Amino acid sequence: MKFLHTSDWHLGRQFHNVSLIDDQDVVLQQVVDYVRQYSVDAVVVAGDIYDRSVPPTQAILLLNRVITQLCQELSTPVIMIPGNHDGAARLGFGAEQMRGAGLHIISDFSQMLEPVVIHTDDAGEVAFYGMPYSDPEQVRHELHASVSTHDEAHQHLCELISRQFNSSQRHVLISHCFVDGAMESESERPLSIGGSDRVNHQHFLGFDYVALGHLHQPQFKGAEYIRYSGSLMKYSFSEQHQKKGMNLVEIDRDGFVGTTFIPLKAPHEMRIIEGELQAIIDSAKDDPRPEDYLLVRLTDTHAILDPMDKLRSVYPNVLHLEKPGMLIGIDQEMRSQRLKRSELDMFKDFFHEAHQVPLTDEQEQAVMDVIQALKHGEEQ
Amino acid sequence: MKFLHTSDWHLGRQFHNVSLIDDQDVVLQQVVDYVRQYSVDAVVVAGDIYDRSVPPTQAILLLNRVITQLCQELSTPVIMIPGNHDGAARLGFGAEQMRGAGLHIISDFSQMLEPVVIHTDDAGEVAFYGMPYSDPEQVRHELHASVSTHDEAHQHLCELISRQFNSSQRHVLISHCFVDGAMESESERPLSIGGSDRVNHQHFLGFDYVALGHLHQPQFKGAEYIRYSGSLMKYSFSEQHQKKGMNLVEIDRDGFVGTTFIPLKAPHEMRIIEGELQAIIDSAKDDPRPEDYLLVRLTDTHAILDPMDKLRSVYPNVLHLEKPGMLIGIDQEMRSQRLKRSELDMFKDFFHEAHQVPLTDEQEQAVMDVIQALKHGEEQ
């Protein structure tokens, strides 16, 4: 059996104040076209369907069209989980009513424990377990589990799921998380501020395939079958050299066979162009893709009048302008200031931010003692 | 065949800063209990399911529970349309996928023309046509129809629907509109500011039953089978004497048989209490419903310290306080000022508000001429 694994659609995302909805529409049609041409047994979306919990109407209409094409026209089941950008309750409305039509939105823990089972000739029954994105507090609260990190939460959820395993079935997990050691991109939103959001891939070893979402770069981690598809398209300029696409996953009666990466092509690429203004303008006429979304980094060191207007006369979609040549001095100064800040200084800032009052002398001494004791411990 | 007609649930509504979600939950359970006990062939909700286009999560979860009880547990089809408070695209997500499970959310004009047909032994096929709430601009734009008022829009939509009529079926319309001559309540939001929002009931005469939403008072208009169920519960103090409930509609092979009004009972009534502070407090001990949501109108004419605190010691849910006794003087003064304002004064205020500059002398003269000409015309 074959299924498509995709994730991080982020429908409704804005990029430097430009709506990407038309680009997303074009790329999703490539997903639909692939299913139409080759036919697969299921399409999996591993979270961050929308870019925010209350998505704009255009994003809802687009998802509705795509879902109807896949489930209704092409009779292909779609299995999705909410990611950290989605509102689980909002995305999950009507999930119970949609199942019969082959649309499986797994948005709570009770649904997580009832796999979507797909019957195939060549691989028998394949059970898809979806783990709706949830922070450790939710897992602790809703499942009365003593977990305090993302890692512990995932370990607990994987244990719950593995108790449901039916040995006559193959087992696929869908999860939205940050596997420890995997590569980040700039366009992801951290799952946890301050605390650790990393999850050990060991928890996932018992599955035949793990369809991951959250990280925007396609990659596997720990084992070839624990894999990120990466995002639908590029969502930051720093991803300019990444390939975007989806995983075609093949499973047989013995489990994981392999994946094939199916590239997806956005109508506008995201690119960074660096150079002096006049040189960039001069060479634009030979650029085969002048409509791309561009970040232009000007290396001119003198002041320039209206550089954006001049650039847009040849590159209409310049979205951001940087002038590093003029900022070198400032940048270096800021960096050296940051390096000088001690642990005590950072804690003082944090305390002040949290309590609206500064540390007393006594408290400051106590914190200094703790820091010194810790440092002393580290050195031993 | 019998079906329940209800409307204007307004899930997620706040009332004087108090969330009504728990009250709405209790009342909706009465709807579910009725279906469980007596079993009906369908439940119709004629718009304003939610109180706003982006409802709070609690409202989504409540609707999800109710829908799952009705459609899944009780296998009773639910047919709903968006009202002027709902976001049609948002409410309609996944509609295509939900139909098979008996949840019919009719949120666009193409769905409007494909009725939900329910097969019954005693009435044959009953076709439910849902008209999603839409203003004349939408009808004009999406259906290329030359309509400019709500009345013309409804006439056009009814004509489109009646072309789909199958003479072997009974025909039920679900619409969210203001039928001309029907009674308003204070808690409705006008459908149109300035323009006319009234619809002639004549357009509806060709249906066997018309399940209306928008007006919060149960009533029929034009014919016994053109009927509002009224809102799920009271949403303003001025509705204190209204009965709230739903219509049990009976249809046979020959069409409309009749309706029975099934009362729904909110856990807190909404009441207005009027009197002097001390008298209200004294008689509270004999009040059988001290937990009701109250508007208290104090008739004391002297100043009172902390009247709200004193009242809440006996009536914990006093939500609003009025002191007409102390305002009589002011009120009368304002009213007489208002009466003295001429058309010219009102136009000057409007112009200033709209343009941020006063009328010039020349403009003022021109407006006076127009007003005088109009008055002259009226008198003839």
List keywords for this structure.
380 residues; alpha/beta; 6-stranded mixed sheet; DNA replication (chains A, B); homodimer; 12 helices; 3 domains; 34% helix; Purple Acid Phosphatase, chain A, domain 2
Number of helices of chain A: 12
Biggest sheet details of chain A: 6 strands, mixed
The domain count of chain A comes to: 3
Structural class of chain A: alpha/beta
| Helix content class of chain A | 25-40%
Order of the strands making up the biggest sheet of chain A: 6-5-4-1-15-16
Largest interface, Cβ cutoff 8 Å: A-B, 25 and 25 residues
Q: What's the end-to-end separation of chain A, in Å?
A: 55 Å
Architecture of the largest domain in chain A, according to CATH?
A: 4-Layer Sandwich
CATH class of the largest domain in chain A: Alpha Beta
Arithmetic mean of pLDDT of chain A = 91
From the alpha carbons, calculate the radius of gyration of chain A and give it in angstroms.
Answer: 24 Å
**What are the low-pLDDT stretches of chain A, counting only 5+ consecutive residues below 50?**
327-335
Under CATH, the topology of the largest domain in chain A is which?
Answer: Purple Acid Phosphatase, chain A, domain 2
Shape of chain A: globular
Number of strands of chain A: 19
Going by CATH, the homologous superfamily of the largest domain in chain A would be Metallo-dependent phosphatases
Oligomer: homodimer
Strand content of chain A: 15-25%
